[in-house]
């Protein structure tokens, strides 16, 4: 009888531990992207810690688009696309006559409807901005970023018909 009670208690504790671990894992997955107001940057959480993707320093955007506001908006977009499973590829595009980065469902695909991540000022080279997100000293310790063209095996950065695509699933796995 005592053994039965002890076994039930142990089972209950084990199930609680699993539930807590699953909840923590889900919370981390849901909060993978954030606006770090101390660094004023959109960050991604990896096993190495929080890594900045975009630093928000330009104060020349018209109100209400302060660096703080843009950081929150873009970080929330990254989080939303990641959480709903549509953060597959990022590409440069012109949206509403402005250079921008957006989400694409596949390499070679166009931007998803409502797939806008961030817009830039007129004259900004969005392809260059996309590559600069990856070209950071913090990534150097992780090893090289693999580049490819459409006819080669999948890699983090690919070119299709002159357009640059970043495979975010590989990028997030590679950055860990």
Strand content: 25-35%
Work out the count of structural domains.
2
Order of helices and strands: HEEEHEEEHHEEEH
Largest sheet: 6 strands, mixed
Number of helices: 5
The neighbouring-strand order within the major sheet is 6-5-4-9-8-7
Shape: globular
Strand segment tally: 9
- Which class do the helix and strand fractions yield? alpha+beta
- Rg, Cα atoms, Å: 20 Å
Helical percent range? 25-40%
Let me know the average pLDDT. 77
Provide the low-confidence segments as ranges: 4-28, 137-152
Task: State the separation between the terminal residues, measured CA to CA.
Answer: 48 Å
Organism: Waterburya agarophytonicola KI4
Signal peptide: 1-19
InterPro entries: COP23 (IPR025478)
Protein name: COP23 domain-containing protein
Structure characteristics:
5 helices; 9 strands; COP23 domain-containing protein; 176 residues; alpha+beta; COP23; globular; 2 domains; signal
Description:
With 176 residues, this protein is an alpha+beta fold. The chain folds into 2 domains: 1-30; 33-174, no CATH class. It has 5 helices and 9 strands, in the order αβββαβββααβββα. The protein has helices at residues 2-30, 67-83, 126-134, 137-140, 168-174; strands spanning 33-36, 41-46, 49-55, 89-95, 98-104, 111-119, 147-149, 157-160, 163-167. A 6-stranded mixed β-sheet has the order 6-5-4-9-8-7. A hairpin with a 2-residue loop joins β8 (157-160) and β9 (163-167).
């Amino acid at each position: 009888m005592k053994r039965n009670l002890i076994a039930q208690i142990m089972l209950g504790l084990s199930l609680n531990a699993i539930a807590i671990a699953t909840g923590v894992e889900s919370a981390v997955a849901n909060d993978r992207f954030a606006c770090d107001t101390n660094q004023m940057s959109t960050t991604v959480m990896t096993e190495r810690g929080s890594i900045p993707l975009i630093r928000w320093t330009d104060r020349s955007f018209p109100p209400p688009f302060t660096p703080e506001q843009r950081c929150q908006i873009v970080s929330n977009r990254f989080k939303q696309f990641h959480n709903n499973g549509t953060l597959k590829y990022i590409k440069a595009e012109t949206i509403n006559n402005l250079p921008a980065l957006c989400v694409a469902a596949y390499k070679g695909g166009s931007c998803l409807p409502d797939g806008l991540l961030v817009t830039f000022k007129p004259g900004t080279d969005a392809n260059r901005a996309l590559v600069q997100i990856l070209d950071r000293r913090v990534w150097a310790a992780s090893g090289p970023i693999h580049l490819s063209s459409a006819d080669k095996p999948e890699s983090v950065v690919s070119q299709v018909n002159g357009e640059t695509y970043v495979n975010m699933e590989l990028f997030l796995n590679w950055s860990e």
